[in-house]
Amino acid sequence: MITRRSKWISAVSVLTLVLVACGDDDDDDGAATETTGAAPATTAGEAPATTAAEAPATTAAEAPATTSAEAPATTGGGTPTGEPITIGVLTSVTGNFAPWGVQVRDGMQLAVDDINAAGGVAGRPLALEVSDDQTDPDRGATEIERLIEGGAVAVGGVISTDVALATAQTAEELQTPLFLVKAGSEAILTRDSRYTFRTCLPAAPMVAGPIAQFAENEGLSRIGVIIADYGWGQAFRSAIENEFADLEGVELKVEVAPVPETDFTTYLRSLEEFDPELIVATGHPPGSGPITVQSADLGMDVPVTGAYSPWALVMSGAGDAALDRYYDFDCADYESPEYQDLAVRYLEMSENPFMEDDAVAGYGIVTMVAQAVEEVGDDPVAIAEYLHANTFDLPGYPFEMGWTEWGELATAQPMFSVVRSGEAPEGLNEAGDWYPVPLLLPEPLEPYEPQ
Q1: Residues 6 or more apart whose Cβ sits within 8 Å of residue 145
Q2: Both 184 and 43 in a single domain?
Q3: Of 109, 111, 105, nearest to 74 (Cα)?
Q4: 126 lies in the same domain as 178
C-alpha cells in the first residue's frame, strides 16, 4: 500500500488530471433573482499520460483563432453612461452547490465593478442579472430563457451538469453565449454546439485516463471510488470503468451515494473491506471533505483525490485530516501575482472567506464578454463568433482560454495542488491557517470530441 506522502508525491508527474463537475441537488430552497450593477455584491452565502501534445485532436488552433486578448477590456476612465449591457448569472445561489455558485456570482461582480470603474464598455456600464437555478434543470431552462429574452448578451455561471444539459439547448436555439463552470458531462456539447463554452472543467472522458495511467504505472491493484448519483457522477463512473476495463490485475470498486449525503461511513466500510490503495472522490463534489476526514477516522491512511471542490468547503469538513493528504485540481494558479491581486480585492467585497477557482472563472467570463462587446458590439451572435476566433489571457488562470469549434476547452491545464498548513500570504485567506500549494501544471489535455 502506498503511504500518505512518498508515493503520492512521486506520482504527481503521472496523474495529470482528476476533475469533477457539479450537478443534481435534492435541496428545494427558494429562488433568488436580483439585478446588480457597479455596486459590489455584499451577500454570498515515470511515464506520463498521453497529452494533447502527443496525440493532438481538433483544437481551436484549427478554427479561426487569430489573436490573444488580455483582460480586463475597458475603455479607460470616466463614468459609463447609457443603456447598461446586461450579463446573466445563472448559478446555484442556494442549495448543496451554493459554495460553488456564490463564488461564481461574486467573481463576476468583481469584474463588473472593475470594468465600470475604468469607464465601462464602449462608454456603457455593465450590469449583472442574477438568477438562482436552485440546481433544478427545469428552473434552469426557464431562467435562461427569461434572462436572454430580457436582453442578456450572454449568460454564465452554470455549476450543475443537469442544469447545463437543460440549458445548453436553449442557448443554441436562441444563439446566445452560455458559459459553463463546473458542468462536465460529455453529453452537454455536441458537434453542432456553437454558443456553449466550458471555462473551467473539461468533459468527463478527459478526466479518467490519467487515473488509470497512475494506477498502472504505480502497480496499484485496488482502487476505491465514491460517486454521487446524478449526471456528473454517473458520467464519471462510466468514464473510469471504461478506462480500467483494459487494465489487467486492477480491481475497481465503486460506491454510489446520494448527492446530499454527509455520512459516508457505510460506503467507506465497504471500501475498507476491499482495502483500497487510493480513494477517488472525484465523482462526488459535496463529499470530498467528509470522505477525507471519515476515511482517516477509519484508519484508511491513503491519498484522496478530490472533486474540484472549494478548498474552504473541504477544509471546513476535513480539517487536519486533509493536510498533505488531500489533492485537487483547479483552474486557478494560487501563487500567481494576478490571482493574489484579485483575491485581495475579492475578499474586500465578498463574504466568502477564500477566492476559489469558481470566482476566478466568473471574473474571466465577464472579462471575455466585455472584450467581445468592446470589439464587435452587443449582438450575442457576434460575441460568440468573436469568442471562437480569439484566445484569452485571463488573470489568475493557469492556462490560456480558447475553444474547439464546439466549445470544449482546447488547451486545458488545470493546476494540481495539495493543501498544507501555515498562514496564507497576507490578505488571501480568511478561512484558516492553510493554503493550497501548486505542485504541477500538466501538459495541455486532448479535447474530447463529441460523437
Answers
A1: 170, 174
A2: yes
A3: 111
A4: yes
Predicted confidence (pLDDT) per residue in 101-137, tens digit: 999 999 999 999 999 999 999 999 999 999 999 999 9
126-132 and 33-36: which strand pairing?
antiparallel
State the distance between the two ends of the chain, measured CA to CA, in whole angstroms: 39
Residue 249 has pLDDT above 80, yes or no: yes
> Sign of the CA dihedral 402, 405, 408, 413?
negative
Amino acid of residue 81: T
Regarding whether 186 and 61 lie in a shared domain, the answer is: yes
- The dihedral formed by the CA atoms of 241, 245, 247 and 251, expressed in degrees to the nearest 10: 60
In angstroms, rounded to a whole number, what is the distance separating the alpha carbons of residues 428 and 430?
7
Same-domain pairing of 103 and 69? yes
pLDDT for position 64: 44
Whether 156 and 136 map to the same domain: the answer is yes
Cβ–Cβ under 8 Å, residues 104 and 361: yes
pLDDT, residue 77, reads 64
Number of domains in the chain: 2
Please give the biggest Cα pair distance in the chain: 66
Confidence of residue 434 (pLDDT cuts 50, 70, 90): very high
Same domain, 80 and 136: yes
The domain containing residue 43 runs over which residues? 33-203+334-412
Tell me the average pLDDT across 276-295: 91
Strand-pair category, 155-158 with 304-305 = unpaired
Question: Are the beta carbons of 295 and 262 closer than 8 angstroms?
Answer: no
Burial of 286 (0-12, 13-18, 19+ CB in 10 A): buried
What is the tens place of the pLDDT at every residue in 413-433? 888 888 999 989 999 999 999
pLDDT in tens, 156-188: 999 999 999 999 999 999 999 999 999 988 999
Per DSSP, the three-state class of 332 is: coil
How many residues are given for the chain? 451
CATH of the domain at 287: 3.40.50.2300
Residue keyed to cell 485530516: 321
| One-letter amino acid of 432 | G
Q: Are 302 and 280 in contact (CB under 8 A)?
A: no
Please report, to the nearest 10 degrees, the dihedral formed by the alpha carbons of residues 51, 54, 60, 65 taken in order: 130
Quick one: residue 334, left, alpha or beta (phi over 0 = left, psi -120 to 50 = alpha)? alpha
Using DSSP bridges, classify how beta strands 434-440 and 415-421 pair: parallel, antiparallel or unpaired: antiparallel
Q: What is the pTM of this model?
A: 0.81
